[in-house]
Specification:
Blueprint (H helix, E strand, L loop, with lengths): L1 E5 L10 E2 L3 E4 L8 E5 L11 E5 L7 E4 L3 E3 L3 E6 L8 H15 L11 H5 L15 H34 L8 H8 L5 E5 L1 H4 E4 L16 E4 L8 E5 L14 E5 L5 E4 L4 E2 L3 E6 L4 H14 L9 H4 L4 E5 L7 H35 L1
Helix pairs in contact: 1-3, 3-8, 4-8, 6-8
């Protein structure tokens, strides 16, 4: 069904990422495996409308590439053979679920499968009454699944948004005088640079768990460098590496490979490639302000480690006339931004909630 070959690879730590260029696909889950864009190389990129399947690593990923791309090491390319009289993204997705079942058998181990193994893997496909592959069924099946998922997500988001507005008090989006002042005086504020060490203590631990350490109904989250699911790769019953208290109500997790930040308010364990930061000032809106400024200053290094750069960034923060960090201004500013953002969401909610509830009933 497919011509399957190992792709000509580039070292992800040796390429330079650019704003405009050709997709660079690595052994990652996020963004369809695309770690960034690179300049055209001396050899041609892989053709679009093909499937990529990673070979090694703790987790194996199968992705559909719609644009030309280069690859990092140990990624196979699957190109449909002429047996496919019809080829589309939905047909590819239908087949990818079967391919993923094969590669996922090798999850939890750094070693991977052999090229002959995936070439000889058999896939069951629907056929028509005349015995031909039923491409139309595959497309309609995936289309229906996508439509159902959209309905589920819409309903879930409405419920979550309603609950969030009530719990956060943001159902009232009227700005108070302090919040108006924060928005209006942004450009006239005095700013000063601060080192990361002025704002956080870097905590260390010998605990380095992974997804394979997670168990069903585990009590404590395992935080990893991944950006999806809030950085949580599973739950375990190990003794937490970090505990929450009245004196330390939260920590900040930094994903070294993804430069993702997560604020943690419950006891937790950690995987490899994360940095645990203990704030010197436990004000959640202040931390949100810092993270926004800090993350903007960290360059995208693809899947390379970001902490060596991130830890040396100087963060500019507003200060009072006496030279102290202006916590009140930052808190008012964050509240104002939240309210301004929620105005648009609230308008969307009002227009769509009735329609969504009708969809749920169907």
């Amino acid at each position: 069904m497919f011509d399957i070959v190992g792709t000509k690879s580039l070292d992800s730590n040796a390429v330079d990422f650019v704003e405009h260029g050709i997709n660079f696909v690595g052994r990652t889950f996020e963004n369809n495996g695309i770690q960034g864009k690179i300049k055209k190389q001396k050899f041609e990129p892989n053709a679009p409308f093909t499937i990529t399947a990673t070979v090694i690593g703790n987790y194996k990923y199968v992705k559909y590439q719609k644009e030309p791309y280069y690859c990092s090491q140990n990624i196979n390319k699957l190109t449909p053979k002429p047996i496919f009289i019809k080829w589309s993204e939905k047909i590819a997705i239908f087949l990818m679920t079967n391919i993923w079942r094969f590669v996922s058998m090798y999850d939890g181990q750094q070693g991977g499968y052999k090229l002959d193994d995936i070439k000889n893997h058999k896939i069951k496909l629907p056929i028509t009454a005349s015995g031909e592959i039923d491409f139309d069924f595959m497309e309609s099946f995936i289309a229906e699944l996508e439509a159902e998922r959209v309905r589920e997500l819409e309903a879930e988001r409405v419920r979550e948004l309603e609950a969030y507005l009530k719990a956060s008090g943001l159902s009232d989006t009227t700005l108070n005088p302090d919040e108006k002042s924060a928005l209006n005086t942004w450009n006239s504020r005095i700013w000063q640079e601060f080192r990361i060490g002025d704002l956080f203590d870097i905590k260390t631990t010998s605990q380095k768990l992974s997804k394979k350490d997670s168990v069903e109904n585990g009590k404590f989250p395992i935080y990893s460098a991944e950006s999806q699911n809030g950085g949580i790769c599973g739950y375990c019953n190990e003794i937490p590496a970090f505990t929450i208290s009245n004196e330390k109500p939260f920590f900040v997790i930094f994903g070294d490979h993804t430069k993702a930040f997560n604020i943690v308010k419950n006891d937790f364990c950690v995987a490899d490639n994360v940095k645990v930061l203990e704030p010197k000032f436990f004000n959640i809106k202040f931390i949100l302000f810092i993270i926004a400024v800090w993350q903007k200053g960290i360059p995208n290094l693809g899947y390379a480690r970001h902490w060596s750069v991130a830890k040396n960034i100087q963060i500019k923060l507003p200060i009072t006339a006496s030279g102290e960090i202006d916590f009140d201004f930052m808190e008012s500013f964050i509240k104002a931004i939240q309210k301004e953002c929620i105005k648009g969401v609230g308008s969307y909610l009002s227009k769509n909630i009735a329609t969504t509830k009708e969809i749920i009933k169907r």
